[in-house]
Design brief:
This protein is mainly β. The chain has helices at residues 13-32, 40-43, 266-276; strands spanning 44-48, 53-58, 61-68, 74-78, 85-92, 101-108, 119-125, 134-140, 149-151, 162-168, 172-177, 180-186, 202-209, 229-240, 277-280. The structure holds 2-acetamido-2-deoxy-beta-D-glucopyranose. The site of 2-acetamido-2-deoxy-beta-D-glucopyranose (NAG) has 8 residues, from loops. Catalyzes xyloglucan endohydrolysis (XEH) and/or endotransglycosylation (XET). Cleaves and religates xyloglucan polymers, an essential constituent of the primary cell wall, and thereby participates in cell wall construction of growing tissues.
């Protein structure tokens, strides 16, 4: 079990003082330890709501806590950007009545015009106490999203840390939960479906209020009497895509390279989707009745 998270107010004097102490301690421990290990403190930066987030040590794991109250939430991003990599991070989500809150993990490029916007999105939609979270995923390429798939997690994501992963290589974007693949977005650019292939992205995380839509379609509002809410992130591991010997980078890998199937256990994917898929845009024939299903939803003609 994870150590109990610190119970702190989101902001205010007590929080500020505590944060200074924690940061000083993290710096000290990081200096004392071999810093080769992935470190949230070293590898990410808080980009909004810096007074609603703090780093702390939990055993050996330096952890970033994001906080949300009625004023605002907070968010971070990796200091580095990557073109093709595997991203793994451990997260523990807002406990108890998390209705209206959304905790996110996503890949996104720097500011680019919307027509070039790429994004790989995991959004954990909170719920009232005792009811399950929904994991909402989406993929944007060249400014077009609308590729929603939703899942029910097979564990309580608020009791302990679980590993959420995004594998991004030239042929696939794969989303995994505790090592189990739940989604595979294939590069179908040859058939006309957009796929992120050319710009670096950073990994981001955030905690915010979305009670206009998140929980049971927006009908359940955030209960601010239960605030502040906390979500925790630790052990970010980024593994850049490694090309085969003699190949300069993954973008030059021959299309049929086995390199890009390594993380893809098709049987595990099928089973996870049979058991945990709630919604798939590719199965939503009603939604696409006028236009036909998006090209990537139809099987390739062989
Ligand atoms: C919340 O719980 C209800 C009832 O179990 C469920 O229908 C819903 O999908 C859950 N998740 C969200 C985000 O509303």
């Amino acid at each position: 079990m994870a150590a109990p998270p610190p119970l702190l107010p989101c902001s205010g004097e007590r929080c500020r003082v505590w944060r200074l102490v924690v940061v000083a301690f993290v710096v000290f421990v990081a200096a004392a330890m071999d810093t080769a290990a992935a470190s949230m403190y070293d590898d990410v930066e808080v980009v909004w709501g810096s007074d609603h987030s703090f780093f702390y040590m939990d055993g050996e794991a330096d952890t970033l806590a994001l906080c949300l109250d009625e004023t605002h939430g907070s968010g971070f991003r990796s200091k580095d950007a990557y073109l093709y990599a595997r991203f793994d991070i451990d997260m523990m989500l807002v406990a108890n009545n998390s209705a209206g809150t959304v905790t996110t993990l996503y890949l996104m490029p720097e500011d680019v015009p919307w027509e070039y916007h790429d994004e790989v999105d995991l959004e954990f939609l909170g719920n009232v106490t005792g009811e399950p979270y929904t994991l909402h995923t989406n993929i944007f390429a060249n400014g077009v999203g609308g590729r929603e798939q939703q899942f029910r997690l097979w564990f309580d994501p608020t009791c302990d840390f679980h590993t959420y992963s995004i594998v991004w290589n030239p042929k696939h974007i794969i989303i995994l939960v505790d090592g189990v693949p739940i989604r595979d977005y294939r590069n179908e650019a040859a058939r006309g479906a957009a796929f992120p292939t050319w710009q670096k992205m950073r990994v981001h995380g955030s905690l915010w209020n979305a009670d206009d839509w998140a929980t049971q379609g927006g009908s359940v509002k955030t209960d601010w009497s239960a605030a502040p809410f906390y979500a925790y992130y630790r052990r970010l591991r980024v593994t850049p895509c490694a090309p085969s010997p003699g190949v300069a980078w993954c973008g030059d890998e021959p299309p049929e390279s086995p390199r890009f199937k390594q993380e893809m256990d098709a049987a595990a994917l099928r089973k996870a989707r049979e058991e945990h898929l709630l919604y798939d845009y590719c199965a939503d024939t009603k939604r696409f009745k006028d236009t036909g299903l998006p090209i990537e939803c139809t099987p390739p003609i062989s």
